[in-house]
């Protein structure tokens, strides 16, 4: 009897030991699963293929060649029988030469004049370099510190931080929702504050902050700056660096007109970065189009003109911050029926060039599940935490 009890007792001990070991194994496996990010779901190959299609590449090549040769025809849509379809960018180009300096020779012609000949390399060199780099390369995300942060550091005399990212960055959009909260102190608490398109901050400090370390402008804003004498465009101070992105080759005329008069760095986003942003936004726009309409993705072009469709400057500023910052806070992105379109203007709506709803889908994924975003898997960076304040 006692022998039977001893056997049962030993059996119970063995069962208990194995139960504890099994529980520990399950617990450790669960912790490993929590540490590992979930795998990205399969991506629709058709959407990826269509998002990678580049529009107007042949026309862009001709524009670059004509600009370098000095034969670019602004008033005729850039050459070709009948010209290209007229867009808002065409309008800006057509009006650029008459208003750049009202009583002087147009800038594109002055580049050939002896007194302004020194400006020619400042125009041709970045244009050639930009076009040469036009290829898809997601690794550009890991190079943004070198391309953007280092020139700013050198300008401010900081030479020992070339390999570091900013500790925290605030990207401040221009939506009227900024007026709903007093985020000014929170915004100014970031190491770098990025503002968009010269939005006014005077009188709005308690809402939008007063600190600015980088001004991110679209080509239209830079064009307006280039029209003014000495290209004055320093709403946040002459030592604040400015980053512009290029949609068309002709925008380099504005860059050249402003570059020599800018005290702080006037930087151009790398064309590889532009192409990465373009693919991501187009993918999200295609995806949203299919999900909301039920139509084939090939019909997307009927809803969004591929000749003018592109990402917003806000989207690219957010992507830029992900590449140069350890933490990112985003303010003033989004819309509400009762909110103004822009907090500092009476503008009613945006030009129909962007798919903002698709970009909002992207922002949600950036905050909640960045591993599902296509084209970024090979970016070579660990995405920092990002918070969108509404």
UniProtKB/TrEMBL annotation:
The chain crosses the membrane at residues 7-27. CDD domains: GT29. GO terms for molecular function: sialyltransferase activity. One of its GO terms (cellular component) is Golgi membrane. It is a single-pass type II membrane protein. Keywords: Glycoprotein, Glycosyltransferase, Golgi apparatus, Membrane, Signal-anchor, Transferase, Transmembrane, Transmembrane helix. This is (wild Malaysian banana) hypothetical protein. Belongs to the glycosyltransferase 29 family. It is found in: Golgi apparatus membrane. It comes from the Eukaryota. Pfam families: Glyco_transf_29.
